[in-house]
Structures are given as C-alpha cells and as structure tokens.
Amino acid sequence: MNASLAIFALLGGFLILVILRFPIAYAVALASIMCMQVYGMNLAALCQLMVKGISSFSLMAVPFFITMGCLMGSGGISEKLIALANSLVGWMTGGMAMVNIVASYFFGGISGSAAADTASLGSILIPMMEDQGYDRDFSTAVTITSSCEGLLVPPSHNMVIYATTAGSLSVGALFLAGYIPGALLAASLMIGSYIISKKRNYPKGEKFNLMSFLKQLSVSFWALAAIIIVVVGVIGGVFTATESAAIAVIYSLIVSVFIYKGLDWKGVWRVLGDCVDTLSIVLILISTSAVFGNCLTLLHVPDMAAKAITGFSSNPIVIALLLNVILLVLGCIMDMAPIILIATPILLPIAVGIGIDPIQFGIMVILNCGIGLLTPPVGSVLFIGSAVAKLPMEKVVKATIPFYLCMIVTLLLITFIPEISLWLPHLLMK
C-alpha cells in the first residue's frame, strides 16, 4: 500500500504540478520529495542523490557543448552558412526553403540547439524568404521544423544526456548514429517543401556555380571545422567527449573573435552570461531528475510499465509504435531534457526487450522530443518561431501540418529500419 501511494505521489504529483505550470525542475523535485515522504525514505538522501546525478565526467561535456554553440551562434557564422547553403541548393524550385533546411543542417552541427537555430537563422531567413515572395507562415514552418535537424546532427548535448541516462553508452557511436537520420529528415522536409513550392509557384534561385560553392565553402570552413574536431576526435579515440568539447570551446572562441570577428570581448562575456543561465537550468534538471529516477527504480515503476505495455500487445511493431506515441504525448507537455531524463529509464528496457538497439532508441527519443518542441501547448521552438515571425501560433501550427507529416514519416523509417541509425557506427567503430 505504501508503495502504491508513493507511486501516486511521484507520478500524480508530478503531473498535477506540470498542469499547474510549475517549472519542470521544481515539479520533478517536489514530486520526488512527496514520494520520499510517503515511502518513509530519509530526506537527507535527497542532496546526496542530486550531487551524484551531476557528478559524472561524461556530463561535463554538456556545459562545454552549450558554450561552444553559444559562442559560434553569436560569432557571425549564420550569414556564412546561409550563403554556403544557397550556393549548394538555391537553384532548386523553392530555393530559399531548401537553403533554410540545408543551413539548419550545417548550423545544427555547430549549435546543437533547435531553439538557437530558429532564433539565429529565422531572424535572417524568414524576412529574406518573404521578400522573395514566400508566405510568412510557410517560411516560419520550414524554419522551425528544419531546426530539429540540429538535435540529430552532432555534437548535440542532448545526446550526451541520453548516453549518460541510458547507462554510459558510447557518445561517439551516438554522434555517428545521428548523421544519416539528420540527413533523412532534411531530405524529407525538402521533398515536402518542393511539393508545396511547385503548387504555390515559389521562385528558383540562380543556377548552381561550382566556383561560387567552393568560395563559400572556404569562407565557412573555419566554422565547420569545429564539428570535425569534436566528431573525429571522439570517434578516433584521440579525446573523450568531454575533452573534445573543451577543445571545441577554445576553438570557437578563437574563430568567433579573431577570424570571423563577430564577437568582441564584451560580447564574449555577454554570451558566457547567457550560457550560465542555460546551464543552471540544465544542471538543476539533471540533478533533480536523478532523485526522480532513483524513486522510479526503488518503486519498480520501469518493471510495471514494461508489464503494462507488453500486456497491451506482444507484437514488437505495436509496442514500437506505442513507445513513439508515449514520447510524442510527453513532448506536448514537457521540454526535451526532462523527457530524456525521466522517460529513458522507463522506456529503454522495453525497447531493448523488443530488439531495438539502445543507440537506435536514442535517435528515436531525440527526434520524438524534437517534434514535441514544435507542438502546443509547451513547444518552445514553436513559440520562438511565432515570436520571430510575429505570427499567431495557430497560424504557424496550421502551416506546419505538412511538415509534421514529413517528420512522422522520418520517425517511422528510423524506428523500423535500424540500419539508418546503426550503419555508420557499425562501419566506423568496429
């Protein structure tokens, strides 16, 4: 009886606090405290569990990757990446939509943040697309959906959080696993954009010019090299993920201040202040979620969830679809980091039980969470896109519906074709 009440206090209390619009970190902490009280646990363990939750060498990569993304995102590289994307795909029908999607793929590999992608590229590309005859709601929908590529393309701090939560998975393998799904998502969004552009007669850009592309590539090389340092360093075993992230921060500082000159030292301090704000939220979430996760394990909630889901159906296809539905529903009411921290310990054993590799499941979780960032009522990227474009959220959601379908198709392909996620890690990390 005590255990049942404790589970109700934990999960019911958390849900009630979320509905009451408590900040997620506080909701997680308060629900955990109520659970511990009901179950008769010593509250002195609370601080110990919180400290233990963030006392991880691999988690040190998270603040470094966030700092790297902030520095590069504020260092004047957005325009250069847009120009590179334009020289590569601007010649197509709906050229500026294609530029938006490809630029997000490049930028996501630097920032690792859908919100930063939408704010940085959207403020430039949405007015530019509107000036060339694209509808503003369409431009906004392309911007916010393509920003989710950055969650899949390494280095992504959310991948580091998942790897740690899932039980010290290889961060390098997760990084590699994201490239093809990220490219698949970009291709899916480009197909959707092409069909809509054909129907609405949106313009093409200038013809492809190899010399122009090589020129833009040389200008953007310094920004793109940050990705090479991180990914090649981790995969090649030269650095750990944390060491490569620290090196990437120093490199990003040099590129932003001395090469692109998009930041002065006053700007660097401002960016670092913004990083501290972001990091404090992330680290509080990780520490409180460690307590929440400990309560879940102690009360055998993952085992109960596994029995409930497998009791619903023994068909692996149905269970895989159900896992995606659960993650999509969570994405409608929670932000990305808490979903990863709370849902992974519960759902990963179920996924492994039906033959889904933990690396593949990580990509599924991240894409599901990415879709959640675009859905009301708490989709943060949806709100940012609406604010940047100065459009009502309802109008943006309506314009985004075709792109939701593109993202769902990509999610289903990743779910049922493991090689999309696993081929590259298996090839390069034998």
Keywords:
single chain; 430 residues; 21 helices
Can you walk me through this structure?
The chain has about 425 residues and is an all-alpha fold. It has one domain. Helices cover about 80% and strands about 0% of the residues. It has 21 helices and no strands. It has helices at about 1-20, 25-40, 45-55, 60-75, 80-90, 95-110, 115-130, 135-145, 150, 155-165, 170-200, 210-235, 240-260, 265-300, 300-310, 315-335, 335-355, 360-370, 380-390, 395-415, 420-430. Helix 1 (about 1-20) runs antiparallel to helix 2 (about 25-40) and helix 8 (about 135-145) runs antiparallel to helix 19 (about 380-390). The longest helix is centred in the middle third of the chain and has 34 residues, at about 265-300. The protein is globular, with a radius of gyration of 22 Å. The model has no long low-confidence stretch (mean pLDDT about 85).
Order of helices and strands: HHHHHHHHHHHHHHHHHHHHH
DSSP summary: helix tally: 21
Mean pLDDT rating: 85
Q: Which secondary-structure class do the elements indicate?
A: mainly alpha
The largest sheet, given as strand count, sense and whether it forms a barrel, is: none
Q: Compute the separation of the termini in Å.
A: 49 Å
Count the E strands.
Answer: 0
Radius of gyration: 22 Å
Helical coverage, percent range: over 70%
Instruction: Describe the global form.
Output: globular
Strand coverage percent: under 5%
Count of domains = 1
Low-confidence region ranges: none
